[in-house]
Amino acid sequence: MAKSSAAKAAPQESRESRDAFVLDLEKIRADARQHMDEGPVTSSYGADRETVLKLLNDSLATEIVCVLRYKRHYFMAKGIHSEAVAQEFLEHANEEQEHADTLAERIVQLGGEPNFAPDSLKSRSHSEYKEGRDLIDMIRENLIAERIAIDTYREIIRYLGDKDVTTRRLFEEILAVEEEHADDMADLLEGRDG
After folding, report:
1. For residues 183 and 11, what is the distance between their CA atoms, to the nearest angstrom?
2. Is the alpha carbon torsion for 111, 119, 59, 72 positive or negative?
3. Do the beta carbons of residue 60 and residue 52 sit within 8 Å?
4. In Å, what is the CA distance from 163 to each residue of 22, 44, 54?
5. Are 153 and 131 within 8 A, CB to CB?
6. 176 lies in which domain range?
7. Does residue 35 fall inside a structural domain?
8. SS3 sequence of the chain
9. Could you report the per-residue pLDDT of 78-98, keeping only the tens digit for each?
10. Does residue 7 lie in a domain region?
11. How many domains does one find in the chain?
């Protein structure tokens, strides 16, 4: 019986030694000094930086297109309930601009360049720029665009996983706001907000 107890203890000790937290602080310090020019991107960065930069720039284009669409809808809103709806459009435009700024900052942190080129915004954006014929159509177009952003950002979050936690969290924060926007637009369509 003593042998079986010892046999059981050995695998446990082996697993504990594998799970032990160990830092090679000297190596980390040396790498930090040697690669200072790479800013926050260290050797432990697990994602393909070029892919992440493309995802960020395409998302930046998406947010800019959303700002432009919401701004147009804000100025073009007409009808009996247009004042409250226009204010919702303006609030969303401002939040989409904050998202664009946050994405641009992250692009720079990762050593990239934010692409604000107007000639390629439409082709890089996940969502479309649709003007809408009337107030209801504008609300529908914004709801469709928010749903597109929700699905594409969820896919980006899934792709990033643990490979780039900071960028993943950034997209999670933006996703939460996009879900609120979609809920707001759905509520407006149902007439619950006035």
Report:
1. 52
2. positive
3. no
4. 20, 9, 15
5. no
6. 47-190
7. no
8. CHHHHHHHHHHHHHHHHHHCCCCCHHHHHHHHHHCHHHCCCCCCCCCCHHHHHHHHHHHHHHHHHHHHHHHHHHHHCCCCCHHHHHHHHHHHHHHHHHHHHHHHHHHHHCCCCCCCCHHHHHHHCCCCCCCCCCHHHHHHHHHHHHHHHHHHHHHHHHHHCCCCHHHHHHHHHHHHHHHHHHHHHHHHHHCCCC
9. 988 899 999 999 999 999 999
10. no
11. 1
For residue 171, what is the domain's CATH number? Answer: 1.20.1260.10
How many other CB atoms sit within 10 Å of the CB of residue 36? 8
Mean predicted confidence (pLDDT) in 137-156? 97
d(Cα 182, Cα 179) in Å, to the nearest integer?
A: 5
In a domain, 14, yes or no: no
Confidence (pLDDT) at 12: 59
For the chain, the straight-line distance linking the first and the last C-alpha, in angstroms and rounded, comes to: 77
Query: Is residue 73 a part of any domain in this protein?
Result: yes
Give the contacts of 111 (CB within 8 A, at least 6 positions apart): 38, 39, 41, 49
Calpha distance 57→114 (Å, rounded): 6
pLDDT at position 193, please?
42
Q: What is the pLDDT of residue 194?
A: 42
pTM comes to 0.81
At residue 44, the pLDDT reads: 72
